Amino acid sequence: MELEMYQVDAFAEDVFSGNPAAVVPLYEWLSEDLLQHIAMENNLSETAFFVRKGEYFELRWFTPEAEVDLCGHATLASAHVLYEYLDYTDPVVVFETKSGRLFVDRENGLYSMDFPAWTYNEIQVTERVATALGARPAELYMGQRDMMAVFDTEEDIRALTPDSRLVSKLDGMCLIATAPGLDYDCVSRVFVPEMNIPEDPVTGSAQTILVPYWANRLNKTQISSYQASARGGLLLCEHLGDRVKIAGKAVSYMTGTIHL
C-alpha cells in the first residue's frame, strides 16, 4: 500500500516557522492502530487524516501518542492540501470531526477556520501550578479541555521554563500561558507534555478559550494572537459568540509517499 503525505507549516508565511503538520488523504479509513503508528512514525505534533464523504470530509487528528478531539493547525494544513494539491475549488471546506462540523475558507492566501468557542471558569492559583510553570500566574482558568494561566506581561510568558513532568500531571490536556502583547492583543505559549509535546509551536485549538477570554477582557471582537514559541506564529481571530474564527497562512514544506 502507498499513501500520499504532505507536510505543511501552518500559521506561517515562510517555511521553518509556524506549526508543522502532516496530512494524509485517504480513500477509506484504515485501522486506528495503523493511523496511530503513522502518526508515531511522523513524530510531529499532529498528523491529520481525512476521507471524502460526498460534500464534506471526515477529519481525524493524531499526536504521536493518541487521537485528539480538536486541532487547529492540522485542520488549516488539511484545507491547504485540498486547495493546493487535490484540485478542490469550492469556496468552503466542510470537515466532520469529533468536535462537530468545522468550516475553512480561503481568500487571498489566508485560511479562515470556524471553530466552537469554549467556556471557562476561574479557579484558584495553586502552588502546584506555579511550581510546574516556574512562575505564579495572576489568574488561572479551567476550560472544557485545557487549563489557562494568565500573566501580567509578555516578558513573563517568554521567560517561562516549565517543568514538563509536573505540567503533565495537571488537569487538562494543554496548559496555556497567556498575557497582553506588546505588538498584538495577546501572546501565548502552549505546553502539552501529556501528549509527548513539551511545547506546541502554534496552537489553533487554544484560540477557542484564548479568544473568548481576551475579547471579553479587551471589550473587542477582533483579536490578534501571537504564539511566542521558538518558531512563532500569528493567528488573526474574531469572537462570534459561541464560535471563533481563526485565520492564518500556510506554506508547503514537503510531499512524499508512505510505503506500507
TrEMBL record:
It comes from the Bacteria. The keyword Hydrolase does not apply. The keyword Isomerase applies. Keywords: Isomerase. Gene3D superfamilies: Diaminopimelate Epimerase, Chain A, domain 1. SUPFAM superfamilies: Diaminopimelate epimerase-like. InterPro entries: Phenazine_PhzF-like. Pfam families: PhzC-PhzF. Belongs to the PhzF family. This is Isomerase.
